[in-house]
Design brief:
- The chain is an alpha+beta fold.
- It has two domains: about 180 residues, no CATH class; about 170 residues, Heat Shock Protein 90, CATH 3.30.565.
- The protein is about 65% helix and about 10% strand.
- It is built from eleven helices and seven strands.
- The strands form two sheets. Strands 2-4-5-7-6 form a five-stranded mixed sheet, with helices on one face. The protein has a two-stranded antiparallel sheet with strand order 1-3.
- The two termini are about 30 Å apart.
Length: about 400
């Protein structure tokens, strides 16, 4: 559009100056302006597309087949244009108007096989040979009179340029659709791989929880309650991660989700907001669930007035978090109990997923736990959406 506007403006100024300087009759001003701007417009339609496509369009992916096609196409264009505008003259039974359009199928071929760049190159070559042939006085257009020769040459160039632009636009749209399909296919493959990975991990976790509950439960009902509670805790954290599109969630959100059945006054959290990446969020949810289960069975939450106080101390520079778990308000003295499978589950989760150490202390007055852990940052490389973007970019540049 900028080239068209510039050519029209330049033509108007040039024709106006010629009439003012040479004192020409103003009645012919519209005709001269039309002929001048028509030539400029055709030049813009021929030159600008090839400049745009070769500077801004994705390079052609060359292989042996494409190289052979390019050679055959170039030879075909050369032979057709050479025969048409160098050695051929129109006859009485073959008029020049349809004869000059014999190269249109080659323009279609160039655009369909090589995209907008191929169409623009074929248009530029075709128009250039037509201009040179007419200037040298050969070809079907030269057999016409002066005015007819100019009109037919301009019409020929305009038709070739417009057809080339249309073919290039269609090729660009088709290429864009192909890239979109490739990216979508890559996204679907990555999504299925990610889903398969998460399902496998979830099933493995469920099997581990079921095996772990065997040695801890005292009855079938107790076993069912232990396993069901742990599965529900895992499911709640998964629901929160799904709602956040698997972005990091806060410790406060994990507490709210896992302890949703408790009044807020019975579990308090003091400290700043700490974000957990998905894998650590699931582990933290399981740890909180086990601690709450123990508090319900043997600790402060077994009494109506008991509560749990959680204090967070986060070192941003080192990425280390210290969690203090204190049970207060225990009015009834319960029998002291020894750590079981649940405590070992906590220690294992803290050691493996939270990259820390759990110091678990149990007294008659309630539990006093301190858990030190290393909080992972939300690196883009761990995000499956970023992996999809990287794979899509590789597909686009391949």
């Amino acid at each position: 559009m900028a080239g068209v506007a510039a050519s029209v403006t330049g033509g108007f100024v040039s024709v106006t100056l010629i009439h003012l300087v040479e004192g020409r009759h103003w009645a012919r001003f519209p005709n001269i302006l039309f002929e001048w701007n028509l030539s400029s417009l055709i030049a813009v339609l021929v030159v600008v597309p090839i400049m745009i496509v070769w500077n801004g369009i994705r390079p052609i992916r060359w292989n042996r087949t494409r190289i052979i096609q390019a050679i055959v196409l170039a030879l075909s264009l050369g032979v057709v244009q050479g025969w048409l505008f160098r050695s051929h003259t129109s006859t009485e039974w073959i008029p020049p108007e349809p004869m000059v359009l014999i190269s249109l199928p080659l323009i279609f071929w160039a655009g369909s096989q090589f995209g907008a760049a191929g169409a623009a190159s074929a248009v530029c070559f075709t128009v250039t040979t037509a201009i040179i042939g007419t200037m040298l006085g050969v070809g079907p257009i030269d057999s016409l009179s002066g005015a007819q020769r100019l009109i037919l040459l301009q019409a020929y160039m305009l038709i070739i340029a417009v057809v080339g632009i249309l073919i290039g636009a269609v090729s660009c749209e088709r290429e864009h659709a192909r890239q979109t399909l490739e990216q979508r296919a890559a996204f679907d493959r990555l999504l299925f791989d990610e889903l398969n990975h998460r399902v496998r991990n979830t099933l493995a976790s469920l099997l581990s929880l079921m095996e772990l509950g065997k040695g801890q439960a005292t009855s079938v009902e107790d076993y069912a309650g232990l396993v069901t509670g742990r599965i529900f805790a895992m499911a709640r954290v998964h629901d929160m991660l799904t709602d956040s599109r698997w972005k990091p969630i806060s410790f406060q959100a994990i507490i709210s989700g896992v302890s949703a059945d408790l009044p807020e006054s019975r579990v308090s959290v003091n400290g700043e907001v700490v974000m957990f990446v998905p894998q650590q969020a699931v582990a933290m949810g399981m740890v909180i669930h086990e601690l709450l289960t123990n508090a319900h069975r043997h600790g402060s939450l077994a009494d109506d007035d008991g509560r749990v106080e959680i204090t967070l101390d986060f070192d941003h520079a080192a990425g280390k978090l210290r969690l203090d778990w204190n049970e207060v308000g225990l009015t009834t003295t319960h029998d002291q109990w020894s750590p079981g499978e649940g405590m070992r589950l906590i220690e294992g989760l803290v050691r493996s997923d939270l990259r820390g150490k759990a110091n678990l202390q149990i007294t008659r007055e309630g539990a006093r736990h301190r858990i030190n852990m290393v909080i992972e940052e939300d690196h883009p490389s761990r995000d499956w959406r970023s992996r999809h973007a990287q794979r899509a970019s590789r597909v686009q540049t391949s």
